[in-house]
């Protein structure tokens, strides 16, 4: 089928979803397509994607679901029955219902899913003391991301239109699992190690970190626990000290050592 343009949407607080997206973009043969970064505070997907536009949407997995913030930012988008490529990136534990949720959301918004993938990224809670999927997506993951893009491009080239394609089946269950809890806790700042560079402020996708005369101030009620501020802090001053998150990180570092492989469905 004829594709006139491509448009890529992503929500990626710690950057792994964005890396996978670039691999898929290369494989699709649309390396220069328009990117819409939904990660910045107040970002929203807007407008209508015509049927000749190839839409790609990527988001991380939070508690086996899509981050509620990503769903909220995607909701204003509309498709006109055009093809959509959907992918999630998870931290080597499991993606559970997230890919199904994204596929169902795309249909609800008016798209026709033609390819879906689940890739692995370094876990947001990974630290040197509790490493989980460190360095992923790596070269092997990105090779598979390109391969996924190529498989989708071949599917598009072979069909006269989406009407000739079978509906895409992706793994997951309904009703979906409960989503991730937000608010109530957030990373802390070790004042002695903070250089007041403001990178945690810039990194926060919900704008809940502020630099004040007294130091870094965080609105814990708004925190989505994405750890972008932790990973973006150049001095290590920003740390997730909460005992419940540290316990999860310890469990993940113990139980999720075996390398999971990306999967895709075309
Ligand atoms: C609140 C929260 C919940 C998460 N839940 C899961 C999960 O259920 N399964 C999993 O494998 N990884 C989980 N992760 C890890 C992320 O999916 C993973 O690190 C992903 O690569 C982050 O994407 P990003 O770099 O685009 O932000 C979670 C991360 C956060 C912050
Ligand atoms: S990124 Fe780190 S060093 Fe910079 S202001 Fe935030 S906590 Fe301080
Ligand atoms: S304060 Fe919370 S929401 Fe903001 S970047 Fe840090 S972990 Fe993410």
Automatic annotation (TrEMBL):
Entry keyword annotation includes Iron: yes
Top-level lineage group: Bacteria
Domain 4Fe-4S ferredoxin-type as annotated: residue spans: 185-214, 216-243
InterPro entries, per database record: 4Fe4S_Fe-S-bd, 4Fe4S_Fe_S_CS, Flavoprotein-like_sf, PSI_iron-sulfur_center
Keywords, ordered alphabetically: 4Fe-4S, Iron, Iron-sulfur, Metal-binding
PANTHER family hit by this protein: FERREDOXIN, PHOTOSYSTEM I IRON-SULFUR CENTER-RELATED
Protein name: 4Fe-4S ferredoxin iron-sulfur binding domain protein
Organism: Solidesulfovibrio fructosivorans JJ]
High-level lineage: Bacteria, Pseudomonadati, Thermodesulfobacteriota, Desulfovibrionia, Desulfovibrionales
């Amino acid at each position: 089928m004829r594709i006139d343009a491509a448009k890529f949407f992503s929500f990626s607080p710690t950057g792994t979803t964005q890396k996978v997206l670039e691999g898929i973009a290369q494989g699709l043969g649309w390396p220069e397509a328009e990117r819409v970064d939904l990660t910045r505070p107040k970002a929203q997907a807007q407008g209508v994607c015509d049927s000749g536009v190839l839409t790609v949407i990527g988001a991380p997995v939070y508690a086996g679901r899509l981050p509620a913030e990503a769903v909220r930012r995607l909701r204003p988008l509309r498709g006109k029955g055009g093809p959509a490529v959907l992918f999630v990136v998870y931290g080597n534990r499991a993606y559970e219902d997230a890919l199904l949720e994204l596929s169902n959301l795309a249909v609800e918004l008016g798209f026709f899913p033609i390819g879906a993938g689940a890739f692995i990224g370094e876990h947001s809670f990974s630290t040197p003391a509790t490493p989980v999927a460190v360095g992923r997506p790596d070269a092997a993951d990105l090779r598979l991301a390109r391969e996924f893009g190529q498989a989708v491009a071949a599917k598009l080239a072979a069909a006269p239109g989406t009407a000739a394609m079978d509906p895409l089946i992706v793994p997951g269950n309904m009703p979906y699992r409960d989503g991730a809890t937000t608010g109530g806790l957030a990373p802390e700042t070790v004042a002695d190690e903070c250089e007041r560079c403001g990178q945690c402020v810039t990194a926060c996708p919900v704008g809940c970190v502020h630099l004040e005369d007294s130091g870094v101030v965080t609105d814990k009620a708004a925190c989505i626990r994405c750890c972008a501020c932790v990973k973006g802090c150049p001095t290590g001053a920003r740390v997730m000290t909460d005992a419940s998150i540290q316990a999860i990180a310890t469990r993940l570092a113990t139980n999720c050592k075996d390398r999971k492989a990306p999967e895709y469905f075309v």
